[in-house]
Amino acid sequence: MTGQRAALLDRDGILNRMIYYPDPGVVDSPFTPKQFELTEEIGPALRTIRAAGFKLVLVSNQPSVAKKHLTMATFRQIQAKMRRLLAKEGIKLDAEYYCFHHPQAKIAKYRVDCACRKPKPGMLLDAAKDLNLDLSQSVMIGDGLYDVLAGKRAGCRTILVANLSALLSTKMDEMDAHPDFVARNVAEAAAIVTKLEPGVRTY
Ligand SMILES: [Zn+2]
C-alpha cells in the first residue's frame, strides 16, 4: 500500500501575506491577528491542489514567540484566524506542524538545536509518519530556500514561489537549494502541482 500524496505548505508568504515593519525596516510574519491576511488566490489554489488528490499539510517555522515578538496566546489567536479565513474558502488543512525553536531564542526553552526547524526535514518526516504520506510523490511549496532544502532533504519535489533574480540564483547556488520549479505566485504553483504525474519524475 503506497502512501498519500501531500502538498507541504509554508505559512508566511504562501498562505498569508508577509508584513513590512518600517522600524526596523524588515519583512516578517504577522505579529497580531489583525495583520494576518490570506494571500491573493490562495483559496482557489488550495482547492485545485486538493482536487488533484493531495493532502494539505502546513509546515512552518514560527520563531516569533521565541524572539518575543508575540506570545503563544497571540500565536493561537492568529492560528484560529487562519483556520477561520481558510474555512471561508472551503479549505481545512489536514495537519499543521510548527517549529517554535530558534538558536538565538530569547526564551530559553525554545533555544534548541532541534530537528524540526527548516531547512531540516523533521516536520515533513513527522507528517509522513502521522499521515502515511509518500514523500517521493509529495511536493513542498514555499517562498524561501529553507523550504526548498527541507523539501529536498525529505525527498519531495519542490516549488519555490518567488520572482527569479540574479541575486536569488546566486543564493540557490551558494546554498545548493535549486527547486524543481519556480512559480511567481500560488496560482502558478497550483497549476504545476496538477501536472505532477504520480510515479514519474517530470524533471
Ligand atoms: Zn524546531
Secondary structure: elements and pairs:
Layout: E1 6-9, E2 19-21, E3 26-28, H1 42-51, E4 55-61, H2 72-88, E5 95-99, H3 122-131, E6 139-142, H4 145-153, E7 157-161, H5 166-175, E8 181-183, H6 186-194
Parallel strand pairs: 1-4, 1-6, 4-5, 6-7, 7-8
Antiparallel strand pairs: 2-3
Helix pairs in contact: 1-6
This protein binds zinc ion (ZN).
Residues 99, 101, 114, 116-117 line the site of zinc ion (ZN).
Strand content: 15-25%
Distance between the termini: 25 Å
* Helix count from the secondary structure assignment: 6
Task: Specify the biggest β-sheet.
Answer: 6 strands, parallel
Order of helices and strands: EEEHEHEHEHEHEH
Total domain modules: 1
Q: How many DSSP-defined strands?
A: 8
Rg is: 16 Å
Briefly note the CATH topology name: Rossmann fold
Structural class: alpha/beta
Hetero groups in this structure are:
zinc ion
Specify the CATH class.
Answer: Alpha Beta
Low-confidence stretches: none
Percent range for helical residues? 25-40%
Mean pLDDT: 95
Strand ordering within the main sheet: 5-4-1-6-7-8
Give the overall form: globular
CATH superfamily: HAD superfamily/HAD-like
Please describe what this structure looks like:
This protein has helices spanning 42-51, 72-88, 122-131, 145-153, 166-175, 186-194; strands at residues 6-9, 19-21, 26-28, 55-61, 95-99, 139-142, 157-161, 181-183. The chain has a single domain (6-194), classed as Rossmann fold (3-Layer(aba) Sandwich). α1 (42-51) runs parallel beside α6. It starts with 5 loop residues before the first strand and ends in a 9-residue tail after the last helix. The longest helix has 17 residues, at 72-88. The protein is built from six helices and eight strands, in the order βββαβαβαβαβαβα. It is α/β, with parallel strands linked by helices. It has a six-stranded parallel beta sheet with strand order 5-4-1-6-7-8, with helices on both faces. The protein has a two-stranded antiparallel ribbon with strand order 2-3. The structure holds zinc ion. Zinc ion (ZN) binds next to loops.
